[in-house]
Amino acid sequence: xxxxxxxxxxxxxxxxxxxxxxxxxxxxxxxxxxxxxxxxxxxxxxxxxxxxxxxxxxxxxxxxxxxxxxxxxxxxxxxxxxxxxxxxxxxxxxxxxxxxxxxxxxxxxxxxxxxxxxxxxxxxxxxxxxxxxxxxxxxxxxxxxxxxxxxxxxxxxxxxxxxxxxxxxxxxxxxxxxxxxxxxxxxxxxxxxxxxxxxxxxxxxx
Length: 206
Ligand SMILES: NC(=O)c1ccc[n+]([C@@H]2O[C@H](COP(=O)([O-])OP(=O)(O)OC[C@H]3O[C@@H](n4cnc5c(N)ncnc54)[C@H](OP(=O)(O)O)[C@@H]3O)[C@@H](O)[C@H]2O)c1
Hints:
- It is a single chain.
- The chain is built from six helices and eleven strands.
- The chain has helices at residues 31-42, 57-63, 68-71, 84-90, 105-117, 132-140; strands at 7-13, 18-20, 50-56, 74-79, 99-102, 123-130, 144-152, 161-162, 171-173, 189-192, 195-204.
- Strands 1, 3, 4, 5, 6, 7, 9, 10 and 11 form a nine-stranded mixed sheet that branches.
- The chain is globular and about 45 Å long.
- The chain starts with 6 loop residues before the first strand and ends with a strand.
- The site of NADP nicotinamide-adenine-dinucleotide phosphate has 28 residues, from strand 1, strand 2, strand 3, helix 2 and strand 6.
């Protein structure tokens, strides 16, 4: 896909790029981090628009269980190898108007671009929500403009889900202006439920 970077990533990871274990995040609930990624991914300047969320099937299934006040702000682009028929059979409770099912990251990126660019676009921004392959592919294909990174100050070497390709070369860590959403949290170190972490924002350096 030949296009300028246009996506955002929201991700929490430890010092060795661990993101998950056995279907869950490997740390205790981090309430301020929840506020951080939910606020960024659900807020739009135009209240009539939604943000598109690109997610693998497992991450989508988790996100779809969130409170309706968040779910109703997202348009899902779900990556799965399942046929459309099988997917909608097994996810029959989902409102179909706000979901696109695709079979590769490339197809998901194309769909996101189309939704953003159509004349009466109802999508304002695009966020990659995970898991491993969607994050890695977005970075590898140089489609990411901004990263909202929650860096957990631990090294969890025995976890199942870790990003092996997440190279921040070409990105610079930024301090956002005070009128940007939750910018007061940038670089802030927080300790919650026994876990220490920090919010970092990166932008492609070009
Ligand atoms: N720390 C964080 O910020 C964060 C964020 C998200 C998730 N997580 C954690 O990460 C773990 C889940 O990771 P995951 O990588 O297994 O989840 P995932 O990417 O959400 O889901 C994996 C599934 O997505 C589909 N998929 C993903 N990429 C695909 C591709 N390129 N082509 C075709 N299908 C694709 C496949 O579905 P089918 O099986 O249907 O074909 C695959 O089985 C959990 O522990 C979760 O808690 C952490």
